[in-house]
Write a structure and sequence with these properties.
mainly alpha, 9 helices, 70% helix
């Protein structure tokens, strides 16, 4: 099992900032965690892991503006959930560090025009509802979370060559759903 990074000691100013930050965003973090887990205990575990990650990256949190901060929080909660799942299944967690999450925050919802250029967040929600879970998982993993084909293949139990075709078919289904408005 991978060892966790230590949380560096923080100054009183950072502590006050983080306490205010946590009070402002704790409900949002729990809401984000509930997208992945059902029980209150699991939700608390995911949020606790996310809080530890956020605390390690307090400097970045101070610099990210409003809506970018919400996306940063969502990605951090999701990374905490995914790494927790990997630990439970005996895989080595892939910790998204500060630089990785910051890079994701700077990207738009979609990384390439090859998939689809979303006109609104409602399109994303529609795809999430209408696509089969595996298709949504691979598209989200590839284009939002930035996982490689090898990593995605391991997550769903297929070879890297097979994942390429799965992504291609999922993109095709996504286009069909979005063009059938």
């Amino acid at each position: 099992m991978a060892t966790r990074k230590e949380i560096p000691p923080i100054s009183l100013d950072d502590r006050q900032f983080f306490e205010k930050f946590y009070e402002e965003y704790k409900n949002f973090m729990f809401y984000s965690a509930r997208q992945y887990v059902n029980s209150q205990g699991e939700c608390e575990d995911v949020v606790q892991d996310a809080v530890e990650r956020l605390l390690r990256n307090i400097t970045t949190i101070r610099e990210i503006p409003g809506c970018g901060l919400r996306k940063y929080i969502v990605l951090t909660v999701k990374a905490a959930y995914l790494d927790g799942e990997k630990r439970r299944h005996g895989d080595i967690p892939i910790y998204l560090d500060d630089a990785a999450i910051e890079a994701l925050v700077k990207e738009e919802i979609i990384a390439t025009k090859d998939w689809y250029d979303f006109s609104s967040v409602f399109d994303v929600e529609r795809l999430k509802r209408e696509l089969p879970k595996r298709d949504w998982f691979v598209l989200e993993g590839k284009y939002i979370m930035g996982y490689s084909q090898t990593e995605l293949g391991k997550m769903i139990g297929v070879s890297p060559n097979s994942i390429r075709m799965i992504i291609c078919r999922a993109r095709r289904k996504a286009r069909q759903i979005l063009h059938s408005k």
